[in-house]
Batch of 3 targets.
Target 1
Amino acid sequence: MSKRLWSVFTNDMEHCYFTGTPYCHRHHIFYGPYRSKSEEYGFVIPIACYLHENEADSVHGNPNQGLDLKLKQMAQQYFEEHYGTREEFIRIFGKNRL
């Protein structure tokens, strides 16, 4: 059985958050060593496959810039409004993105 991913940003994990396309990937906003924390805090978002990878402006094609940075900033702002302080965010996710 696959893991049930959820998002603080949408209840619809079947359509891209930005385009509405039904053909999407579920992107962990904080990936690598922070992947499990993204799942724990709901920082997973459905995005069109071309926004996810293989394109120059995709989140994995342009890390920590453009759309990838925007998503990380959205997640940090949500964290600070709902979960804890900036210091706690930095402790959990490595650094300040705002």
Target 2
Amino acid sequence: MPSAPAHHLQVMLDHAKQQGAFTLVDGAQAVAHYPVDVQILDCDFYVFSGHKMYGPTGIGVLYGKNHALEVLMPYQTGGEMVRHVSHQATEFNVLPYRLEAGTPHIEGVIGLAAACDFLNTQDRLALLAWEQSLAAHVYSRLHKEGGIEMYSPEKGTTLVSLSVPNVHILDLNAYLDSQGVAVRAGSHCAHPLMAQLGVAGTLRASFACYNTMEEANRFCDVLLEAIDLLNDE
């Protein structure tokens, strides 16, 4: 991971360990953009979803250290997760079988493995730099326009988050969608943050390794069209 995010995460992990807590990192937003080394992080658990890294939906990964996985109790029962069952007791199987009940999501695992192979064959830092350059370009264009509230930093991120005073973000989103531009609009599972910012939500353009500069400019052009149109109503 880049030094600044890794440093802040490491501080939190170290503090949690000092309190005797297990540490779990939700890496769903990280794995598609950053090279991640769980041994360096030294966390007890690391989780991420397949669809965030160009894989299929309905599949994800739980990494865990043996000592942490051993204390987890199975919450599902099924084939291969037990050694012996009687009326008196159940003896669970060894890891990882005790936590993988029944028939696994076979096709999802194959698709997820292909996504992992794809990312592992890429220059991850080069991909990250490209994604950040697209976000920085969009930020620069929109910031110059005025009348747009920007919530993401100018540099060092792969997304641009914004709102427009007196224009509802869902109206902006609807216009962008009608023009074939796919973005996200809403609270982004961060209602307390939106309340702190005093907004109903934000419009978020997230850039991936396959996006182009033409698409970044297309987003800006259509967004500005939407703002002009909706401000006239």
Target 3
Amino acid sequence: MNGKLNGKRVLLADDHAMVRLGFRLLLEGEGAQVVGEAQDGETALRQYAELNPDLLVMDVSMPGIGGIAALERLLAWDATARVLMLSAHHDDVVPVRALRAGAAGYLCKRAAPETFIDAVAAVLAGRRYIDPELAQRVALAQLAGSSSPVDCLTDKELAVFLKLAGGCTVADVAEDFCLSPSTVGTHLYHIKQKLSAQNASELTLIALRNGLLEV
């Protein structure tokens, strides 16, 4: 089969099986070979080492260490790795984090299928790719430094914050990220301290004001 991605070997990392299936169909429709699928960051790193794909397409928010931490570990091991990061969040905080960590590209999951293929092709060709709808905001954020209060959070704190702000309980987050409830509680304490928030409702409000949650 001939296509834009003919013969390219791609590894998919996303914790939703239906999402991975959609990406697989799009990639294979353009001639790429999906050599593996992972549902968390640890599995993605293990499969990358075993399969040596041309490209890793990875979600930012996954159980365990999460996408950005997995990206940092991967690039520390293989500085030439090409990684396209995906996220459901339509803001500038998460893409700036991903690009600073070394991602070759960033795309919002709400992008059109043809935009996804263009992003994959660009990264495979050695070019940087930023979601067109976010490019200007990301560039301004990188030049001026993020003005978002959540920029003071660590990557793990940001991942926990997004879950809690979205309505998850501490127990939910602990199970999702394979952490103990006490560890999540510690993260929550630091998050509240850094953001001057008193409760979950205030965390949700901060997330909404910074474009980190769907209305």
